[in-house]
Specification:
The chain is built from eight helices and seven strands, in the order E-H-E-H-E-H-E-H-E-H-E-H-H-E-H. The protein is an alpha/beta fold.
């Protein structure tokens, strides 16, 4: 099945070449869609040399709109039967693609989440960030009667049919709870697999913050009752 890898990017000049290299090294992507969300650190200049070459397609947002908006742009442009969201910050390792894709290829899932909390190798960092993730996942499980371990994971892989006709409105990091809520309400089969994780801290450029946690709570509550 054709795999579209969607990479939302904002100010990742230090890592964008490496993540593209790693995705290519898997030899699994039929296309790599990089959506630059208004970067001002030189990322766009780097991306110029990739656009249109070796399965890479670059899309530019004229101004910063947020990760969710970049992901939605990537979904709209993707041609593959399977779509995989890949952050550009090197926290998630493309070498996990085989385990992420296996449930989809075998027909046992419609959506696969790469869980950071199922025992895979990971760098030790940021206790309170982990607590926030646990709490948001716990809230998801209560509201939607499920047993996820990592709702906020950046590794979400899904069949094209899952998002066809699904209204997505997220602009920032609220993409994770919105997508999860709508997948669960539509009773798609979600499969979780253990992945490796190498989190960076705020001094290294991590962007998600406390404001986004509150926005995630509101998003989970809102989409429990509306579509």
């Amino acid at each position: 099945m054709k795999l579209s890898v969607i990479i939302p990017v904002f100010n990742e000049a230090k890592s964008i070449q490496e993540i593209i290299k790693r995705v290519k090294a898997t030899k699994m992507a039929s296309e790599i869609i990089v959506v630059d969300d208004g970067s001002v650190d030189g990322t766009r200049d780097i991306l110029k040399k990739y656009d249109g070459k070796e399965k890479v397609h670059v899309i530019l947002h004229e101004k910063n709109q947020g990760k969710g908006a970049a992901v939605r742009t990537g979904i709209q442009a993707a041609q593959g039967e399977i779509m995989l969201i890949q952050d550009a910050d090197l926290e998630y390792d493309p070498r996990d693609y085989p385990i992420l894709l296996k449930p989809l290829v075998e027909g046992t899932a419609d959506v696969v989440y790469g869980s950071r909390f199922l025992g895979g190798p990971r760098r030790v960092a940021m206790f309170w960030h982990m607590v926030a993730n646990y709490m948001l996942t716990f809230m998801t499980n209560i509201l939607y009667n499920t047993i996820l371990t990592d709702m906020e994971t950046g590794y979400k892989v899904f069949r094209r049919t899952v998002v066809e006709g699904m209204p997505l409105h997220a602009r920032r990091f609220d993409f994770e709870p919105e997508f999860t809520a709508k997948v669960l309400k539509r009773h798609y089969r979600i499969y979780e697999v253990a992945i490796s994780f190498n989190p960076r801290d705020y001094s290294e450029g991590k962007k998600i913050g406390l404001k986004d946690a509150f926005e995630a709570v509101w998003t989970l509550l809102k989409y429990r009752f509306v579509d």
